[in-house]
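Structure ticket #2291
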Amino acid sequence: MTEQEESAIKNISIPSLPKSEKESWRETKIETSRLVVRAFQPEDAADLYEYLSQEEVYRFEPGEPVDREKAQKLAIEMTASSGFWAVELKAEHKVIGQIYFEQVEPQRIMTWELGYILSPRHQRQGCATEAVSALLQRGFDAAGIHRVVAHCNPENTASWKLLERLGFRREGHLKRNMFFRRDSNDNPLWNDTFIYAVLDGDYPHRL
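Resolution: structure written out below.
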């Protein structure tokens, strides 16, 4: 863990929500020293375009670079979704990434899925660690979460190392189980997947 990332986690202070507010926890803004983790707004379209138009963002993700029209549609869709959170950099009042954090079915198993994308310009500065840790702290406190799972490509070293820094453990390695693209002969380009998870009682950064 780098000094920036360690500091990012140590400096997070997310007060517990009163019981009356726990049902509406997704409507609250989660603030850290550098960031605000909040619901998306339609006016975030320009910031979405800035990082989702970059080809390198899709190295380990499905999809392709978006134009401004697509970014506007995405901003509206993500505003309407309960599963997407914007990561805003306070100093610039700019959205620099997104977190997907949503409960999976069946609800009785109290399991949520985590995913994240951060602007290449703001990577390797501890921002992803800071944002994800803050959201997990609030989620465990407010949503009755038992388990959080995350999936990533084994070649995406930065992603699975971030998960391990946050206390996730590797639970599986699926071989050639997923593809997002095809080769020139229309054959699937298969990828492996790491499966990570953390339990409520095992999350080391729980307040």
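Closing remark: Confidence is low (pLDDT under 50) at residues 13-23.
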